[in-house]
MYO5B protein
Amino acid sequence: IQQVFKQLFYMINAIALNNLLLRKDVCSWSTGMQLRFNISQLEEWLRGKNLQQSGAAQTLEPLIQAAQLLQLKKKTSEDAEAICSLCTSLTTQQIVKILNLYTPVNEFEERVTVAFIRNIQKQLQERNDPPQLLLDFKHMFPVLFPFNPSAITMDSIHLPASLNLDFLNKV
């Protein structure tokens, strides 16, 4: 069950983050607030179902960081440093794309300046990020089957002759 929810939450993360990276109309402060609220609801559900050890919440980390990126101030070099230290699960390309797509919803917000985005790129240039922008939503985690040893010992097992397993010998 834990593995199923980890896979499901990864798919939610990948599809939501890919939509965020491809659609200018959803890159805003209010979307960041809405995403963060919905993610907290998912995390609360995991805790309520005692699935916090499944790794499902960790698969949502890039989406959480993207939501926080949308909510942070984006003006000073201190803001750029905060973004660089916070967004460790996002690639440089993803951070820059979200900042480029950021669209102010009301008159109190301002567009992200080109100088600010260049500052971010300069600070993140030493990262060894993969070149891909979008997440692979078809990625599958390996299925792990726990080993449960049997309490029955091999010398107590009786093999019927009808199975034709004469080549097996008790040692």
